[in-house]
């Protein structure tokens, strides 16, 4: 099963912009101030050092996959920066079930309903691997799986 891993530099937020939030608070199940993430949670993903937020809108890449572009922007706090945590297809997981460490999830862009997707196309800007948004409710594959 192919699954891309989130870098520890990404912080999960539940639509909160709390300066005291940190990766250890968001990920540590034993922390008194941990934020529980469950299926159906709406999150923003922010790079810890740069404070750039993962952002997408319905504009395709001009090369590579040609799929919906995913970028990061500083201080962006709009509907294009929100993602819904969803389970893999064909699992017994339901909305409201807590996400535990090591769980594979899918992230659905809140506005366009496409999945955060990874594959082997080169990014048109950096040359690293491209991340895009792809598919929808009835269209998903293992490139949409994140751990």
TrEMBL record:
The keyword Repeat applies. Residues 34-88, 96-147 form the MIR domain. It comes from the Eukaryota. Residues 1-21 form the signal peptide. Pfam families: MIR. Keywords: Repeat, Signal. This is MIR domain-containing protein. It comes from Aegilops tauschii subsp. strangulata. The lineage of its organism: Eukaryota, Viridiplantae, Streptophyta, Embryophyta, Tracheophyta.
